[in-house]
Design goal:
The chain is of the alpha+beta class. The chain is built from nine helices and six strands; from the N terminus they run αααββααααββααββ. It starts with 15 loop residues before the first helix and ends with a strand. InterPro entries: ArsR-like_HTH (IPR011991), Carb_Metab_HTH_regulators (IPR050313), WH-like_DNA-bd_sf (IPR036388), WH_DNA-bd_sf (IPR036390). This is Putative ArsR family transcriptional regulator.
Length: 225
């Protein structure tokens, strides 16, 4: 009697997180796409793809916009990577920045590196000025600068001025992340330039007490009048 081969078990469906990663990869490679295009590319149902897309949108990794196919026809909603979604893919920005600064230093000296970074800081200060209207107290300015730094990836917060939390003085500014750590470790001029930027936009003395680039857990700035 011929033995009947045992049925081959079906492959388990991909884990939700893996499906989400594949969605991000498809958007990275193919650009903006409809939910129908994404579902077909992954071999999943449109409702299933839509659920994953909603999750990714809540995480801030993708966004939507309306466009006309080929510039004509009925408008349709497409999904695309947000800046945060783009940041999940490998980048070589830090390597490029270090290479550029190294060439500047070799060609023009160490002082030129700080001049270049200070010029960048001056431009950033101009952009930030719109968020710091006249009439704000120093504490209010520090709060707004912390919010701006957080949007730039520094995860900044303010803390009470005193060790025991007493009130009355300007808060301490703390950056809990350094998105430029690779560059800052090799070129301390970057940290000096950021210190100059804070003093300029706050209109106050700024003393840095700790620095992530030196192996400490955060950058802590004491603000003075």
């Amino acid at each position: 009697m011929t033995a009947v081969p045992a049925p081959v078990p079906a492959s388990p469906p991909p884990a939700p997180e893996r499906t989400k990663q594949r969605l991000l990869e498809q958007l990275k490679r193919g650009g903006p796409q409809t939910v129908q295009d994404l579902a077909a590319g992954l071999g999943v149902s449109v409702p299933g793809a839509r659920r994953h897309l909603c999750d990714l949108q809540e995480q801030g990794l993708i966004e939507t916009r309306t466009e006309r196919p080929g510039g004509r026809g009925r408008p349709q909603h497409v999904f695309l990577l947000s800046d945060r979604g783009e940041a999940t893919f490998p980048k070589t920005y830090s390597t490029l920045c270090v290479d550029v600064l190294r060439h500047i230093q070799d060609l023009y000296g160490a002082g030129a590196v700080l001049q270049v970074l200070d010029a960048r800081s001056a431009e950033l200060a101009g952009r930030l000025a719109a968020e710091l209207p006249p009439g704000l107290t120093l504490a209010e300015r520090v709060e707004r600068v912390a919010a701006w730094l957080t949007r730039a990836g520094f995860d900044a917060v303010t803390e009470p001025a005193g060790e025991t939390g007493e009130t009355g003085g300007p808060p301490v500014l703390v950056k809990r992340n350094c998105p430029n750590l690779t560059v800052a470790r090799q070129y301390p001029q970057l940290c000096q330039s950021e210190l100059n930027l804070l003093a300029q936009v706050l209109g106050a003395g700024v003393v840095r007490e700790t620095r992530i680039a030196c192996g400490q857990g955060r950058c802590r700035y004491r603000i003075g009048p």
